[in-house]
Amino acid sequence: MKLAFLGLGVMGYPMAGHLEKAGHDVTVYNRTVAKAKAWASEYGGSFKETAAEAAQGSEIVFMCVGNDDDVRAVATGPKGAFEGMRKGAIFADHTTASAEVARELHAIGKTKGIGVLDAPVSGGQAGAVNGKLTIMVGGDAEPFKLAEPVMAHYGRAVTLMGPSGSGQLTKMVNQICIAGLVQALSEGLNFAVRSGLDGKKVIDVISKGAAQSWQMENRGTTMLEGKFDFGFAIDWMRKDLAICMAEARRNGASLPVTALVDQFYARVQERGGRRWDTSALIHLLQKA
Questions:
Q1: Is pTM beyond 0.85 here?
Q2: For a tag on the chain, would you pick the N or C end, based on fewer CB atoms within 10 A?
């Protein structure tokens, strides 16, 4: 298929690479042109200097950028993707953004005959590199049916969650759960160390029981070692939690733990940890 991929950050760069390696004809766009050139050199695809040019003639256009403003600028702004897309094409947005902007793009797409899917991902940079992302999708069944096998090149689970915005809402649930899990894990591991226990042995034992989690398996040891210079940056997590809390104000959900953990992340940022992994919550307890 002729595809486009817009946004070559730590997630988009390898995701687009999986599409090219699978035999698709991929054209990329990135605001920093040097990165687009580097991608084309590494994978053998092509690049364009505007999103509209990259999207021209593509059957599916994928995007993975930063926030709501970036989504609007790259998709529907001047020289944005929608300018170059033909009727019947599909636009799949992997950005973690608001359900509001997802529905906005979906409505604009309807007027242009473009199928729009909100398709945020979970699994981090490692999931993108290894092609094992979890992709939660909102939108209509027909474009999803066409896009799903293509997204499967980098997604181990690709699921239609409901109408437009449902993918973003599901990702919010994901981030709410992670925030609480990481704080609980931080408190538990700090408690273990201060009690004189071998933290790594504690992880080995309790990870075989009901306390087991992805965070424990993949972050427990590095948390004990005070290593945070990798993974999903706290700046991005706070962006995501702000989206969650804004949506909660709209739908009436109560998020007391999420709000508290967000404040803890703000304190880590104040310590210079803006780009540290989300597991750095334990730093507040280790260095109280």
A1: yes
A2: C
Other Cβ atoms closer than 10 A to 211: 14
- Which of 263, 260, 265, 259 is closest to 278 using CA atoms? 265
The rounded distance, in Å, linking the Cα atoms of 210 and 112 is 50
Same domain, 42 and 146: yes
Answer for the pair 81, 111: CB distance below 8 angstroms, yes or no: no
175 neighbors 278 (Cβ within 8 angstroms) = no
- Percentages helix, strand, coil for the chain (3-state, rounded to 5) are 55, 15, 30
What CATH number did the domain enclosing 243 receive?
1.10.1040.10
In terms of Cα–Cα distance, which of 228, 227, 258, 256 is closest to 244?
Answer: 258
Q: Are residues 25 and 158 both part of a single domain?
A: yes
What CATH code is carried by the domain that includes residue 17?
Answer: 3.40.50.720
Per residue in 195-217, pLDDT (tens digit) is 999 999 999 999 999 999 999 99
Tokens of 127: 């999931």
The set of catalytic residues is 171
